[in-house]
Design goal:
The chain has one domain (about 5-160): Ferritin, core subunit, four-helix bundle (Ferritin, Up-down Bundle), CATH 1.20.1260. Helices cover about 75% and strands about 0% of the residues. It is built from six helices and no strands. Helix 3 (about 75-90) runs antiparallel to helix 4 (about 95-125). The longest helix is centred in the middle third of the chain and has 32 residues, at about 95-125.
Length: about 190
C-alpha cells in the first residue's frame, strides 16, 4: 500500500496494532502459565482480558473510521513474541525466570505504548475526537500495565532472585571445608 497521506498512515498503523494485539492475546496465556509469582500470573491474566477489550475497541475504531483492520501482520510484535518464547523455554530459578518474563513483557508494552502514542497523535491531528478518545484509553491501559509489571518486579520478584554468582542450590559454606575456586574468585573481587 502506498502511504501518501496521514489517513493512509493512520490506516496502516491501526492494522499493525490490530495484528499486534491479536498476536499478544495468543501469547499471554503461555506467559501466565510459565510465571511462578502469583501477582505476575494474575497480571498476565488481567492483561489478557484487557487485550481482548482492546481488540474489540480497535474493531470499533475500524468501523468508525471505515477501515478493514485485517490483512497485515505486525512483524515487530511477531519478533517480540518470538524473543519471549525463548524465555518460555528457559529453565532456572523461578524468580529469575519471572524477571525474564517481565523483561519480555516490558519490551512488548513499550512497543505498544510507542505505537498507540503515534496513532493517538495522528487521530488528534486528523480531528477525529471519538477515535482519539478510544485510542487514548488503550494507551493509558498500556502505560498502567507497564507500571504494574515494574512494581511486581521491584516488590516481589527481585527480592527472591539469587544475585551475582550465588548458587541457589549451594549449601551454606562450612568453615572446615576449603573454599571452591569460584568462592576464591568472588572473594578477590
Amino acid at each position: 500500500m502506498q502511504i501518501d497521506t496521514l489517513t493512509d498512515l493512520f490506516t496502516e498503523q491501526l492494522k499493525d496494532l490490530y495484528s499486534a494485539e491479536n498476536q499478544l492475546a495468543k501469547a499471554l496465556p503461555k506467559m501466565a502459565k510459565k510465571g511462578s509469582s502469583p501477582s505476575l500470573v494474575e497480571a498476565f491474566k488481567t492483561h489478557l482480558d484487557e487485550t481482548k477489550r482492546q481488540i474489540d475497541r480497535l474493531q470499533s475504531i475500524g468501523e468508525i473510521a471505515g477501515i478493514k483492520l485485517t490483512g497485515k501482520k505486525c512483524k515487530a510484535m511477531e519478533g517480540l513474541i518470538e524473543e519471549g518464547k525463548e524465555v518460555l523455554e528457559e529453565e532456572g530459578h523461578e524468580s529469575v525466570i519471572d524477571a525474564a518474563l517481565i523483561a519480555a513483557a516490558h519490551r512488548i508494552e513499550h512497543y505498544e505504548i510507542s505505537a498507540y502514542t503515534t496513532v493517538c497523535t495522528i487521530a488528534e491531528t486528523l480531528g477525529n475526537e471519538e477515535v482519539f478518545s478510544l485510542l487514548q484509553e488503550t494507551l493509558e491501559e498500556e502505560i498502567k500495565t507497564g507500571e504494574i509489571l515494574t512494581n511486581i518486579l521491584k516488590s516481589e520478584v527481585l527480592a527472591h532472585a539469587p544475585h551475582n554468582d550465588e548458587d541457589p542450590e549451594a549449601p551454606e559454606e562450612d568453615e572446615d571445608v576449603a573454599p571452591s575456586p569460584a568462592t576464591k574468585r568472588r572473594a578477590k573481587k
